[in-house]
Amino acid sequence: MAEEVNLALHNISQANHLFTFDLYKTLAAEPGNLFFSPLSIQVILALTFLGAKDNTARQMAKGLRIPEDTAVVEDGVGALMNRLQEINDVRLDVANRIYLKAGYPIKEGFNSSASRFKAGVEEVDFLEEPKARKTINDWVESKTNHKIKEIIPSGILNGLTRLVLVNAIYFRGDWQTKFKKHRTFPVPFHSADGSTKNVDMMSLEEHLKYSERSDLNCQVLLLPYKGERFSMLILLPREVNGLASLEEKLADFSLQDTLNNLQGTNVHAQLPKFKIEYSKELTSVLTKLGMTDMFENAANFTGITDAEHLKVDKVLHKAFVEVNEEGTEAAAATAVVGVPYSLTIWK
């Protein structure tokens, strides 16, 4: 049994790696800074997948890069949730919740799957939109140390809303070796759009894992957090305007090979202090990854309920990250909004 769970955890970890780069390639095509949590998105969509059937389920499994076997997904994500709770050197909180229309019937099997994801179920009255929205937003804000606010904006919930599946993630980790604040100075920073502006640049001289990748034309640096179970992997293009070229080459990027080729060496590392907040409605992105039926009247979520035909109306995502001399603070949330099929009246 333990071997089966470990294999399921390995499958989910591999799926997250693949899904991360699929998402990145799609989102990076848009202008501006990008920061998102593939784990938050994948976990709550994996729970949604467990209520899907037939072609909807097949499309979601393929798009999320997860196995079609629901038992493997349940075991893998369940093991992942347990594993994340065992971490002590950094703070990493992952929480799931289902907000359900009062009295709405969901199947015992789906309720059981939610339990494996440690997702509690709470009934709300979506007709009282401000109150329902506040209930969900307050929960997300509390789970993300007040970094993610208003995951559900006004105008999303209404009398047709049947359920909202929500994931929230919070991370706080100190560097294994902290940057000295007195060594942070304004330095010109070259943006991908060709502009240059001064940013506060942190500086550190330390024995770190480093490599140079000629195939990617970049430098690779691993900055560990306290305890060294988590690290920030940094890829720096050799050329000032080399980011676009590097992003194209990431299609064939192997994270494991890159980590295996890192060597410990004395490094003078410079890293800008930064803070990014990102927000995105993901329907178009997920559709490009092949998950189309879930948003249409072809959706089959009979694994959730037989009361009526459901489809996904919106997938909302917000993320936050701040990097400074002490370490990194990051948070993210994803909400999946479920509604019944719209009615077509023929005359």
Automatic annotation (TrEMBL):
Superkingdom as given in the UniProt entry: Eukaryota
Keywords for this protein: Protease inhibitor, Serine protease inhibitor
Domain Serpin: 21-343
Protein known as: Serpin 1
InterPro entries associated with the record: Serpin_dom (IPR023796), Serpin_fam (IPR000215), Serpin_sf (IPR036186), Serpin_sf_1 (IPR042178), Serpin_sf_2 (IPR042185)
GO MF, one example: serine-type endopeptidase inhibitor activity
Gene3D superfamilies cross-referenced by the UniProt entry: Alpha-1-antitrypsin, domain 1 (2.30.39.10), Antithrombin, subunit I, domain 2 (3.30.497.10)
Organism of origin: Locusta migratoria
Sequence similarity: Belongs to the serpin family.
Gene Ontology cellular component annotations, sorted alphabetically: extracellular space
